[in-house]
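Help needed: design a sequence for this.
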């Protein structure tokens, strides 16, 4: 069991589940009553998937360049997800609306 956890096979299983989730969400967005764009959902899943891929490469002692590219792809997917969320919220930070988190003031 320890080897299953440390050699990356568990990550392979999780990545397979992420792919199945992406297919299920694509089906739901196409034929269901989805109120979220498929692109935003896939960007969110892609960010997590690329982070898992980077972890898989690190556990398998792969070339550092592949891990860096995977992390870069996760960044771009995350930025795409954020852009979709800001676009969907109407104006978000671009219009100068206040953040939903309270500001901290010095005493």
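Sure. Designed sequence:
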């Amino acid at each position: 069991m320890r080897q299953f956890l440390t050699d990356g096979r568990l990550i392979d299983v999780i990545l397979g589940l992420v792919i199945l989730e992406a297919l299920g969400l694509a089906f739901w967005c196409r034929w269901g009553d989805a109120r979220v764009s498929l692109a935003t959902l896939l960007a969110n899943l892609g960010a997590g998937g690329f982070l898992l891929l980077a972890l898989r490469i690190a556990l398998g002692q792969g070339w550092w360049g592949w891990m860096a590219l995977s992390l870069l792809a996760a960044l771009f997917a995350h930025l795409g997800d954020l852009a979709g969320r800001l676009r969907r919220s109407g104006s978000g930070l671009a219009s100068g609306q206040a953040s939903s988190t309270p500001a901290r003031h010095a005493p």
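Helices lie at 2-6, 9-31, 38-59, 64-88.
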